[in-house]
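Example with several molecule types.
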Amino acid sequence: MEAQVIIKDITKTYILSKKQQKIERVKDKRKVAVNGLSFTAYKGEIYGLLGPNGAGKTTALRCISTLIKPDSGDIIVNGHSVITDPEGVRQSIGFLTSDLQLEAFFTPNYLFDYFARLRGVTEDIIKERKKQLFEKFGIDRFAEVKVGELSTGMRQKVQIAISLLHDPAVIVFDEPTNGLDVLTAKVVTDYLTELKNEGKTIIISTHIFSVVEKICDRVGIIINGKLLLTETIDEAGGTEANLENQFFELVASESEEA
Amino acid sequence: MKNVLTIFKKEWDRVIKDKRLLFSVMILPGLMIFIIYSFMGTAMTSLSAPDPGNIAIVNPTEGFTSIYALPDNENIDNIITIAASEIPTYMTLVDQGEWDLIIVFPANIESNLVDGYQATADIYYNGNESQSQTIYQVYRGYLDIYGKALSYQLYEDTTVLLYNVGTQPIDEKKLMGTIMATLLPMLVVMFLFSGAMAIGPESIAGEKERGTMATLLVTPVKRSQIAMGKVASLGVLSLLSAISSFIGIITSFPKLFGEDIDFLSIYGIGEYAMILGLLFSTVFVIVGVISVVSAYAKNLKEAGTLITPIYLLTIIIGISSIFGEGANASWWFYLIPIYNTVQSLIAVLTFDPNITMYMMITVMANLVFTALLIVLLNRMFNSEKIMFSK
Ligand SMILES: Nc1ncnc2c1ncn2[C@@H]1O[C@H](COP(=O)(O)OP(=O)(O)O)[C@@H](O)[C@H]1O
Ligand SMILES: [Mg+2]
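Resulting structure tokens for the full complex:
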């Protein structure tokens, strides 16, 4: 197995503003969102990061995408370090998270071309990829509708298409089925499986057990910024119920420690 | 470079393809200025041009008539001849504010003209009526001229030197240039700034707030290219917006100064090229400042709050053109952005002989400032604290 994404003991601490302290009801200005996290994702697998809200999933994925830098530790993506070669990482990765939005004024067609050009994709490949991805997600009919006028689901599909336009080796999707209806969610998960079979490395985060059980090869359970367990889905029991039981046991023991 | 162009094009399309934005950035400023200035101009002319006066003259003379009826004077007053017997009636009318002025010449004043002859003209007006007072002053002026003319005739000097009276030879071009120099620099800086303010914060603070900037930041595009692309397109768009304002003000000139004063033709292609060059170099400094502040701001609203005092400061610097005699002569003042633009504009508009040096220092200084601001913006785009603060 070829290690494609190696997360090496990363830690990320946010400094909370006065306002955030009030909202979170904490006295401490510092919030350790990710605490000594390590795991590896291999070529041709889907790795699921499972955890409750506020566990640090989004923070960890943002570190992989180079949107933010870990305070300590390093991440190697496709041979590039997020610390020393962030541009190399950005080249290799397709990233999706709710923090990344598309400009409401433009159409999917316009934005696809825009980001493809910025990524240096040649014009004929742009055409080909656009046709393929727009068809796959049923965007073709909405290609000339402004993003601001699209439904949430359609917008998310456009975001997915744009995040994959450069055919990246590594795909990092933060809660990819959140806010989607079951049919759309299935299109997305099916496509992720297809990409995996093509040999891509995929990391997704979720708080939904069934997603992990259905598409992930391995799962890491993250609570309070720490990775408590990494195992294959078979080792975890192979069913949603078994996964859930394990998860709640871990939550219980973690809160005892705290 | 290709990426800079791609980003430039997107920023450009964002404004040009948005009919509402296009109208409010490119058309509205010019239209508003045209309407406001035309209105101001009309109001000013109606203030400065008094109503036609009513003047009654006893024993009018050819010489006097030829003075007030000169074609250049565009005399619109109602001037009538009355008999001496009618004087009391008209005096009552003047007292009641219904007539403005009565002038009574002695009979046959011009034919009686001999050495030592002294004629007295009686004048009657109403000092409590402003219209009557104004008319009196105007005709008092004509009478002075007439008096002089008569005395020249006395010495058999038939050349009546009407136009030498009280008239110093003046350099009209220089005078008009001075008027322009007090008026325009402030407006230029204001137009450039308000154009940039209408689109800059939206394009940077707005994109940051809505998360569309993050989408750009996960691509491998260099942050410096993003900074350059944004500043370049915002600069060009702001310049166009400023030019729209200019067209507005230029088209309102005839209303503001009268149809026959042509301010535009006193300047040649050289001056216009210099003005455009100054605007071009200045707009990038302004856009740079607005971009840096917008990148620093947490959201669009905060950007607006932070930019307003800077806007006021530039207006104050612009107003400095109203004071002082011509352009500042110390070269190092031309290193100060905005101030250097204002002073260089004054120099161009007043045909200052040192303009080439001022221009060079100004453009160089602005170039350096723009480069520094882009470097700063690049660093801010690289800082997660600034780009992802909540
Ligand atoms: N920009 C931020 N500033 C301060 N605190 C943050 C920020 N983003 C996330 N956090 C905090 O870090 C913790 C982890 O958040 P996140 O990574 O979003 O968790 P998850 O995605 O698993 O729900 C939470 O307590 C959250 O409040
Ligand atoms: Mg999250």
